[in-house]
Write a structure and sequence with these properties.
Radius of gyration: 18 Å
Low-confidence stretches: none
Number of strands: 8
Shape: globular
Number of helices: 7
Structural class: alpha+beta
Order of helices and strands: EEEHEHEEHEEHHHH
Strand order of the largest sheet: 1-2-3-5-4
Strand content: 15-25%
Largest sheet: 5 strands, mixed, barrel
Helix content: 25-40%
Distance between the termini: 32 Å
């Protein structure tokens, strides 16, 4: 189960992200990087962030803790920035937060090294979830206390932006040419053996069960939130079954 916290104060916007995430304090005295359901990228970015982040964690990849963040729209009343006001007003209810890692550094492939086994597992994982946002220009990796952390999976699971066309992407090859860890990922066969055995339908169902039903509601072509969850599980299970066509 994910923890749910209640936001108590909006600290500052983090404008490097296209969805305008914000740093917020919560009632557990924690500080979180919050992705908002009212942002331009919408709730599907939150679904991808949660599903991929928690799947990565269960595959023993390092990810900051993910929490659900209850946001009261009234928090926006005291914000001087009109854009932030509108964002908070449009994000009442459950949003997504990642534990803030103070002092962390953005991953630099020149300055930082990653062990081949870990690099290969990250590359395999990104290929499974079709993460197009791990390039050397925008690695979406942090170094904290000399440890690598995976962040920002909102651009993954691109198939869910068009369920009627999702079938065509099940076996789509993954382009590793631009992946920031491609050169370091020299243990790909070992990663494929370990990771493919670990990703089971039960694991996928466990992860998708964490996604709040309001984020899945009213999806065209689906009667219930559970039907949408089942579609994610089916897609990823079928993609795994043809991994010889997409694996790095």
């Amino acid at each position: 189960m994910l923890r749910t916290v209640t936001a108590t104060r909006y600290v500052t916007p983090l404008r490097e992200g296209g969805s305008l995430p914000g740093l917020m304090e919560a009632d557990d005295l924690g500080t979180y990087v919050v992705k908002f359901r009212g942002a331009g990228q919408g709730r599907k970015a939150l679904i991808a962030e949660l599903a991929c982040g928690e799947l990565a964690r269960r595959l023993d990849l390092p990810v900051p803790e993910i929490v659900l963040v209850e946001v009261d729209p009234l928090l926006g009343r005291s914000e001087p920035d009109e854009e932030v006001q509108d964002l908070l007003k449009g994000s009442g209810g459950l949003n997504l937060g990642l534990d803030f890692l103070p002092g962390s550094l953005g991953f630099d492939p020149v300055a930082h090294t990653v062990e081949p086994a870990l690099a290969s597992r990250v590359l395999w994982f990104d290929a499974l979830v079709s993460n197009v946002d791990r390039s050397w220009r925008n690695p979406n990796l942090l170094m904290w206390h000399r440890r690598l952390y995976l962040i920002d999976h909102g651009a993954a699971l691109i198939f869910h932006h068009g369920w009627s066309r999702a079938e065509g992407s099940i076996a789509r090859p993954y382009d590793v040419a631009d992946h920031v860890l491609s050169d370091a990922a020299t243990s790909r066969a070992e990663a494929d053996t370990a990771m493919s055995a670990a990703v089971t339908p039960d694991l996928l169902r466990e992860v998708l069960a964490l996604v709040p039903s309001p984020w899945l509601a009213d999806e065209p072509g689906f009667a219930t939130a559970d039907d949408v969850r089942a579609a994610y599980v089916d897609h990823l299970t079928r993609r795994l079954a043809v991994r010889d066509r997409w694996r790095p």
